[in-house]
Amino acid sequence: MKLYGHATSPYVRKVRIALREKNIRFEWIEESPHDAGNHIVALNPLGKVPVIETDDGQVFFDSALIIEYIDTLTPERLIPGTTPERLRALLWNTLGMGLVDATAARLLEGRRPAPQKSQEFIARQEDKIARALAWADKADRGAAYLVGERFSIADLGLALALEYIDFRYPHDWRGKHPRLARWLAGISTRGSFAETVPPGMEKALDAPH
Ligand SMILES: N[C@@H](CCC(=O)N[C@@H](CS)C(=O)NCC(=O)O)C(=O)O
Predict the structure, then answer these.
(1) Could you give the residue ranges of the DSSP H alpha helices within the chain?
(2) pLDDT tens digits along 151-180
(3) Which CATH topology does 83-195 take?
(4) Would you list the domain boundaries of the chain?
(5) 84 φ/ψ angles, rounded to the nearest 5 degrees
(6) What is the distance of C-alpha 137 from the center of its chain?
């Protein structure tokens, strides 16, 4: 299997973490849709990463669908099979990906030249992030894993998002949510997280929290 995408994309990192958690070997083609001559637009008409190409030539894009596909490849599932657990895990994952989306939108807006940059838009993303963190803090039951007794898509989605916030929107969310901070410290030590830290993100994660 080939995975296309660049190291700093949280969506690509999510797929890398899932593949590592499931011990699935893959070839990583490190490309961005903005690179001249990239292979991505030929595989994904939306021109976005991650994209995977299976050994028998199937192509899947969008991290959610890719993870759904790779979850079928080994018996130990990231997405729980029974309905109530599955829905709870997917809700946490949706919250995490919403946090990633808002953090990425805030970052991109902040990079626009001053006359086009909207402070109102940036503030709206920051409000979403603050509300989602408060939601997570309230819903967290204080166990090592968010749903059930083992690592799932719930933990993957939220931990990915919290580390992405540290990378791209560093601020003291831990001061308000120390329990979430303790939970993240546990998840971050997993090989799948430690081995996929993008360049530049180490500094953000090493900073005193
Ligand atoms: N919903 C998609 C989002 C993917 C996405 O936005 N990827 C960004 C990189 S972080 C991208 O490829 N952007 C290029 C573009 O939109 O032109 C997913 O989960 O895979």
Answers:
(1) 10-21, 40-43, 63-71, 83-110, 119-139, 153-168, 173-176, 178-188, 191-194, 201-206
(2) 999 999 999 999 999 999 999 999 999 999
(3) Glutathione S-transferase Yfyf (Class Pi); Chain A, domain 2 (1.20.1050)
(4) 2-71, 83-195
(5) -65, -40
(6) 18
CB atoms within 10 A of CB 86: 16
Residue range 2-71, CATH number? 3.40.30.10
Q: Given ligand 1 and candidates 11, 63, 100, 160, which is best to mutate, with the most ligand atoms within 8 Å of its CB?
A: 11
Contacts of 77 (CB under 8 A, 6+ apart): 71, 152
Please compute the mean of the pLDDT values over residues 109-129 and round it to a whole number: 97
| CA distance from start to end of the chain | 38
Residue 11 in contact with ligand 1 by CB distance below 6 A: yes
Nearest Cα residue to atom 18 of ligand 1: 62
pLDDT digits (tens, 9 = 90+) for 29-79: 999 999 999 999 999 999 999 999 999 999 999 999 999 999 999 999 999
